[in-house]
Hints:
Two copies of one chain form a homodimer.
Chain A: H1 11-25, H2 37-44, H3 48-60, E1 64-67, E2 71-74, E3 80-83, H4 90-94, E4 107-117, H5 121-127, E5 135-144, E6 147-156, H6 158-163, H7 176-183, E7 188-198, H8 202-207, E8 216-225, E9 229-239, E10 243-250
Helix pairs in contact in A: 1-3, 2-3
Chain A binds a DNA duplex through helix 3.
Protein name (chains A, B): GntR family transcriptional regulator
Keywords (chains A, B): DNA-binding, Transcription, Transcription regulation
InterPro entries (chains A, B): Bact_HTH_transcr_reg (IPR050679), Chorismate_lyase_/UTRA_dom_sf (IPR028978), Tscrpt_reg_HTH_GntR (IPR000524), UTRA (IPR011663), WH-like_DNA-bd_sf (IPR036388), WH_DNA-bd_sf (IPR036390)
Amino acid sequence: MPTSENGSTPVYREIADELREQIRSGRLTDGDRLPGENTLMERHGIARATARQALSELINEGLASPVRGSGVYVRLFRPVRRHGSRRLSRDIWGRGGSIWQTQERDYEVDRLLVDEAVPEAHVARALGLAEEEAVLRRSRRYLVDGRPVQNAVSYLAPAVAAAAPRVREHDTGPGGVYARLAEVGLAPVRFTEEIRVRMPTPGEREDLSLPPGTPVVDVARTALADGNRPVEFGEITMDGSAYVLQYDFEA
Amino acid sequence: MPTSENGSTPVYREIADELREQIRSGRLTDGDRLPGENTLMERHGIARATARQALSELINEGLASPVRGSGVYVRLFRPVRRHGSRRLSRDIWGRGGSIWQTQERDYEVDRLLVDEAVPEAHVARALGLAEEEAVLRRSRRYLVDGRPVQNAVSYLAPAVAAAAPRVREHDTGPGGVYARLAEVGLAPVRFTEEIRVRMPTPGEREDLSLPPGTPVVDVARTALADGNRPVEFGEITMDGSAYVLQYDFEA
DNA sequence: AAGTGGTCTAGACCACTCG
DNA sequence: GAGTGGTCTAGACCACTTA
């Protein structure tokens, strides 16, 4: 029994292509069950490992998600919009809202941690500090619809934290950290965001409940007060399937 | 629905963790060869499929790349910076530069295609057109250091293309499409960019020479002329490992 | 020619889900 | 209890790279 031959494309790939086409065409949609390993083995006369490989193609592309003891299901994609400029505009946090207020979806913060730490070199550089200088660190995880969607860590230079002591509290009050900074004349006036994309580490996969085939987005944000003085540096790791990032800017 | 809990970590995972740690610590770096399937089988007393699964973990994370007949190698990450706002600023294309001028790296355009087509619904919507109306389409692939890094398609409404006929040419002249639009009073004054992240389709994997474990970034850009009139809509698919996107904006 | 990864077969035991 | 995906073994042939 020489394996079926078609010159070039491997069998598992052809099966994956066929299933992908059914998803693309809409014949299979969000939450539908894909044919299982046994079904594929029988239908195509192949070994188990080959059927698995076909399914793992789709899983690694983020189009499907395996559920132990149940099946492999087509995966849904309902991203949340995150506005760059508008989101951080003074209008919003100046009125006591949070940067998340432009979202229609519910959100929660869980696992908020506030501490001090000597930051890594790139953080110190972003804040314009000498190394070895400790900074205030605020770490938190955000949930949307009860599902973890991002981890965020923000760093505040000691001088800044000293000027606005409430940023050390868990509850920083209406408008959050930026509003407290504004009260002491350190309002952010400019932001820089750097976006990188990559596959998550196993730890992040677990922490954000990411199915296989889901990339993450790293956003590194620097907030600058008047005179281009850096007042905050934030690192955010987001579930890439959960967001659409939007930036509006002038020519 | 989700998710999985683990009592004991599988063998393939432990091996992958070990190798990942060697990469993270720097003991193995860019271009180094990882232990092969045979080595892992012997060293850990496992079957071939298990060794393969360990290596495929790293490959799917984008940390390593397999080379047929040779080995599995640690993968390098040298992204190019792409500026949002600054890049598209009038300063640059007003002086006859291209949006790529802020890059230090060499770039090339290959496979430039200019034609007319009835666009998909979301494109028609972005350009404010009735459906079924044909638009001018410019498709091209960009190379950096000889390596394909992005595919871009831009759409121009028929009225806009009629006003600036040179946008139908392959060579649109100094400053490119935007400069031609500016000459007829249709200079873009505002841009909106939407960023999405996902795993590539097999076709994109081939087209952009993407190794497994490399996500792509989709940028959907709308250029608006005076009076918020949409003049161009562009869709870009980028090799996620090749770029850092930067956006600067005011509070 | 030897070694490598790519594909595939044919089994096995397990933990889990579901009716 | 039947079915599912998760893990693993022990083989095989192939195309390709490297020396």
